[in-house]
Specification:
The protein is of the alpha+beta class. About 25% of the residues lie in helices and about 25% in strands. The protein has a domain of about 120 residues: Alpha-Beta Plaits (2-Layer Sandwich), CATH 3.30.70. It is built from 9 helices and 15 strands. The strands form 3 sheets. Strands 5, 6, 7, 8, 9, 10, 13, 14 and 15 form a 9-stranded mixed β-sheet that branches. It has a 4-stranded antiparallel β-sheet with strand order 2-3-1-4, with helices on one face. A two-stranded antiparallel sheet has the order 11-12. A hairpin with a 2-residue loop joins β14 and β15. The N and C termini lie far apart (about 75 Å). The structure holds fructose -6-phosphate and magnesium ion (MG) (2 copies).
């Protein structure tokens, strides 16, 4: 069966600052999908990660379908209405348009979609991250799909040994999206040269040598759409696993690194990425940036799961290390790499301050 997985997510308002949506917002979104989804969907789930609500849907209508995108947009609009009625912070903030016009791309919500012929066993992972941006997935994906030190399958399994093709987007090109396709391992250094800069180059998709899609990442940049910063672009990602793809354990292994990513407080800092349980909230320093991983099998479009991958004692140690890294970085406040470079800051205050100071400099 040819099935499409679609994840559409947005921050439509949250309690206590940018921490978590209210139960009522989540119920509104879930009820809207439940009541209106039957004519489009085979199955669905509604999750939250920090302040973001994500709708995972299975259907047979392909990617970029107006019916599916409209359904999710209307559900998120309904959630935003509840958030406004409750006086939640940032109510409706990621919904940049009032009326749906065929596709949610460019309207604020993040989208990751994949269409494929279901394998007899079709396991996949749904990742969602909050208080960071899509480049946060660059390093874990690089390690999982190219590095035999992380992924023994690359040398043990004949199916994986043929490598993978990365589709990488230049997200700073404001005129039109630009993508490049690069093959691992043949073009490994080119891939690394791009992915080292996660604020500019972002993995959008990965394909196996047989042409089947393994990965889809939401690569939208709200500040490109809105023309100004409207918050970090908290990304979602779908990853098919096993057989011709890396195993689940190989895909999740790199998250033990808790790499420093852009985000946290005011979307303007470098902080380590903490793997957390599904439906986790935000805390220390409006962070740390968090990532959740829900594992599913899909069969004839029906979802079985999720299993909460980071809800395991192993990750307690990783979380403790991550918290220590976060505190270490915070010791240096605004200084050097603790705060993002000028063009990645979510606020204009510092630019205005430096412009005012510039006039007071005197030649000597
Ligand atoms: C992401 C997120 C942050 C905020 C940022 C600025 O989920 O919530 O990136 O957008 O912290 O928010 P304000 O200015 O409202 O504090
Ligand atoms: Mg937010
Ligand atoms: Mg968020």
């Amino acid at each position: 069966m040819r099935v499409t997985l679609s994840v559409i997510k947005a921050d439509v308002g949250s309690i206590g600052g940018h921490l978590t949506p209210s139960t009522e917002v989540l119920e509104t979104v879930a009820e809207h999908i439940h009541e209106n989804g039957h004519k489009y969907l085979i199955d669905h789930r509604v999750h939250f990660t920090g302040d973001d609500v994500a709708i995972l849907m299975t259907h047979e209508r392909g990617a970029d379908d107006a019916g599916i995108h409209g359904l999710a947009f209307e559900a998120l609009m309904a959630g935003a209405k509840t958030a406004k009625a409750q006086g939640l912070y940032g109510a409706g903030q990621d919904l940049l348009k009032d009326a749906f016009s065929g596709n949610v791309r460019g309207m604020g919500p993040a989208v990751a979609e994949m269409t494929f012929d279901e394998r007899p066993n079709e396991p996949f992972l749904f990742f969602a991250a909050d208080k960071t941006d899509p480049g946060a997935f660059n390093l874990p994906l690089y390690l999982a799909f190219t590095d035999p030190m992380n992924t023994p399958g690359l040398i043990l399994s004949p199916e994986l040994g043929n490598g993978f093709e990365f589709v990488i987007m230049d997200v700073n090109n404001t005129e039109r999206d630009r993508v490049i396709r690069l093959k691992a391992p043949a073009e490994l250094y080119d891939i690394a040269a791009l992915l080292r800069n996660p604020e500019r180059y972002v993995v959008e998709a990965i394909y196996a040598a047989d042409g089947s899609q393994a990965v889809a990442v939401a690569t939208s940049r709200l500040h490109n759409i809105a023309g100004k910063y409207t918050g970090k672009d908290d990304p979602v990602m779908l990853v098919r696993v096993q057989k011709q793809f890396p195993a689940t354990g190989e895909v999740v292994a790199p998250y033990h690194l808790a790499p420093y990513v852009a985000g946290a407080m005011r979307g303007s800092h470098n902080m380590p990425l903490m793997p957390v349980q599904l439906n986790s909230t935000i805390s220390y320093f409006d962070g740390p940036p968090i990532v959740t991983c829900a594992a599913f099998c899909v069969h004839q479009g029906r979802l079985v799961g999720p299993t909460d991958v980071f809800d395991h004692p192993f990750w307690d140690t990783v979380r403790a290390n991550c918290a220590a890294k976060a505190i270490d970085m915070r010791r240096q406040g605004f200084f050097g790499p603790a705060m993002l470079p000028m063009d990645e800051l979510e606020y204009t205050g510092i630019v205005e301050r430096l412009t005012a100071l510039d006039k007071r400099f005197k030649l000597r």
